[in-house]
Write a structure and sequence with these properties.
Blueprint: H1 4-29, H2 39-64, H3 70-95, H4 98-119, H5 126-135, E1 138-155, H6 158-168, E2 173-174, E3 180-187, H7 190-200, E4 208-222, E5 235-238, E6 243-248, E7 254-259, E8 264-268, E9 274-276, E10 286-289, E11 295-299, E12 302-307, E13 321-322, E14 327-335, E15 338-345, E16 357-362, E17 375-377, E18 382-386, E19 391-398, E20 401-408, E21 416-422, E22 425-430, E23 437-441, E24 444-448, H8 455-458, E25 460-463, E26 468-471, E27 477-480, E28 484-488, E29 494-499, E30 503-508, E31 512-516, E32 520-524, E33 530-532, E34 539-544, E35 550-555, E36 559-564
Antiparallel strand pairs: 1-3, 1-4, 2-3, 5-36, 6-7, 7-8, 8-9, 10-11, 11-12, 12-13, 14-15, 15-16, 16-17, 18-19, 19-20, 20-21, 22-23, 23-24, 24-25, 26-27, 27-28, 28-29, 30-31, 31-32, 32-33, 34-35, 35-36
Helix pairs in contact: 1-2, 1-4, 1-5, 2-3, 3-4, 4-5
Length: 566
């Protein structure tokens, strides 16, 4: 049977995913915090795998229709176990019953056994053997114990069931569809359940039932499926309420979250422990670590620098940096001659015309930088970018155009003109070396070479206006718009495009990270392959570490999810 080897490899690929996600869900069900997924996320992944199982079983049926012998029998046996897996995985995805999850775990184990049985009938296949060894190296075990559930009802209406539940007191649940039943509690023995039922009679609860069922516990062991679970968070951290900003330290040791009420939380990245919770005088709109991870810049309409991880500040109340409105962007300059946090804000009104915007700069320890700071900007503020030459680029709008200026920190005392671009600035990006720049205005997306002999001569319109732009380390320009994200090579050729629903933020790491809509974050590979990260709530912020290998996402104003990109 020529089709048997590819069927075995395809099956192993599906089982590898089930094994990894079973491992993650088992961890969540036992209260672990690392390499876990919710049952909803497991269900989403499983539903994505079910069509693949359908394709494999259909192909198996076709391949074995006119065949005979041990290979044919092994393929049929494997298809049977996959059919059971599809049925039970679909049932758990829909209902979430622990007993059905236990059956799914058993189906996966049986399917692995049958993949190996089929492999013994086929020519040696190193790829298949490697996948099977990997998939069976992380394990999940189940244990069931008898339990007796006490139920009251059924009642004629949901209102009657709710009334009974109030008379009972603490209950597990009340069904919202007929039959309307109050699930009161579970007990280890029937005698205990009967005694509890008798105790309810004085409360007027006469119609009760004791239902025998099972409770399930899960345990995981063996290897950790880091590679297979890269789309899932390595750690989930509960932060302060109202959290809207997140930052990752370059050394990988710390995670910071900033909240609307001014709280800044500093956590250990290794175990999620809270190290500091200082409170600032304004909501946090900017959060950024220094390159050596020793300092954290945090603030909004006022800002300070904090020791990491102590969370204390060397600055008194009179020394904090003050801005006319909440900081719209902050960057860190990291060259031997100039290490500084630089931030920009709009004027108090944010209106165009006149001045009132501000650019402020502080040394890592919070000391204010002298001339030319603070710099005044138009009321609409602007955008900042830094390169590895110690240059700060500033893009601001006035008189119907966008001016890009440059300042070499620690050397120059005034900015120099670079180029003027038609239209009002919407976004600005610079590659790390400062050789390529892109400005988005309401009149289009423009590119230029900042260090050319005459940057103005290099200015060219690259396309329509988009929402955001960013450069990769190889000079690729990424453009984010409402309905798509695209990658344009240094030669101007399109590399890939991906469709979006409502593109909101673009961050470039080892993969291109896209915040799409309210609850989706994509990680896009260099070849344009799109993977959805395992987020399960409303997204407030997305960022990457300075090396681009880690991603942090703030969800629901209270949780930070940390991902390790592959």
């Amino acid at each position: 049977m020529r089709d048997a080897p590819p069927l075995a490899r395809d099956t192993a690929g599906v089982l590898l995913q089930f094994s990894a996600y079973d491992y993650a869900l088992a961890g969540a069900l036992t209260g672990e915090k690392s390499r876990v997924v919710t049952s909803d996320r497991w269900a989403a992944v499983a539903r994505g795998l079910l069509p693949k199982i359908g394709d494999i079983t259909s192909a198996s049926l076709s391949a074995t229709a006119n065949a005979a012998g041990p290979v044919r029998n092994a393929v049929v046996s494997l298809a049977d176990s996959l059919t059971d897996l599809a049925k039970d995985a679909g049932a758990y995805a829909d209902g979430g019953e622990p007993g059905v999850f236990a059956k799914t775990i058993g189906d996966v184990a049986m399917s692995w056994d049958r993949v190996r049985a089929l492999a013994t009938q086929l020519p040696a296949d190193a790829e298949l053997e490697k996948t099977a060894a990997r998939g069976t190296s992380f394990t999940v075990s189940t244990k069931s114990d008898p339990a007796f559930a006490l139920q009251a009802g059924p009642y004629a209406t949901a209102a009657d069931a709710d009334t009974a539940a109030k008379r009972i007191g603490a209950v597990i649940s009340v069904t919202r569809t007929p039959p309307f039943v109050v699930r009161v509690a579970t007990y280890a023995s029937k005698a205990q359940a009967d005694a509890a039922a008798a105790a309810l009679r004085p409360k007027g609860i006469d119609v009760t039932a004791v239902v025998e069922e099972k409770t399930y516990t899960f345990a995981r062991g063996g290897a950790v499926p880091d590679t297979e679970l890269w789309r899932e968070p390595t750690r989930v951290i509960d932060g302060p309420g109202g959290a809207r900003r997140v930052a990752l330290s370059p050394d990988g040791k710390w995670i910071a979250m900033g909240a609307d009420d001014g709280f800044v939380a500093i956590f250990s990245a290794s175990n999620g422990a809270l190290f500091a919770l200082p409170k600032l005088t304004a909501g946090v709109s900017a959060l950024l670590f220094s390159a050596d991870s020793a300092w954290l810049f945090a603030g909004g309409a006022s800002a300070t620098t904090l020791f990491v991880p102590q969370g204390s500040s060397p600055l008194g109340p009179a020394q904090v940096a003050r801005f006319p409105s909440a900081i719209s962007q902050a960057v860190y300059m990291n060259v031997p001659t100039a290490r500084a946090f630089i931030a920009i804000s709009k004027s108090a009104s944010g209106a165009s015309g006149g001045g009132g915007g501000l650019i402020g700069a502080r040394a890592p320890d919070g000391a204010a930088l002298g001339d030319p700071f603070p710099l005044t900007t138009p009321g609409t503020g602007g955008f900042l970018a830094v390169d590895d030459r110690g240059e700060l680029f500033i893009a601001t709008t006035s008189g119907g155009g966008t001016d890009v200026e440059v300042l070499r920190l620690g050397v120059e005392r005034s900015t120099r003109d670079v180029v003027r671009v038609p239209g009002a600035a919407l976004a600005f990006a610079l590659d790390v070396k400062g050789d390529r720049a892109a400005v988005v205005t309401d009149q289009g997306t423009f590119r230029f070479a900042p260090h050319a002999a005459d940057p103005k001569a290099t200015l060219q319109k690259a396309g329509a206006a988009v929402r955001d732009v960013s450069f990769g380390v190889d000079g690729t320009l990424y453009q984010l718009d409402k309905d798509r994200v695209s990658a344009i090579g240094p030669d101007g050729a399109s590399r890939w495009q991906a469709r979006l629903t409502d593109g909101r933020k673009l961050v470039v790491g080892t993969r291109t990270i896209i915040w799409d809509g309210t609850d989706t974050v994509y990680a896009i590979a260099a070849d344009g392959t799109v993977d959805a990260l395992g987020v399960d709530g409303t997204v407030q912020d997305v960022t990457t570490s300075s090396d681009g290998k880690r991603v942090a996402v703030v969800l629901d104003g209270r949780r930070a999810l940390i991902f390790e990109l592959q």
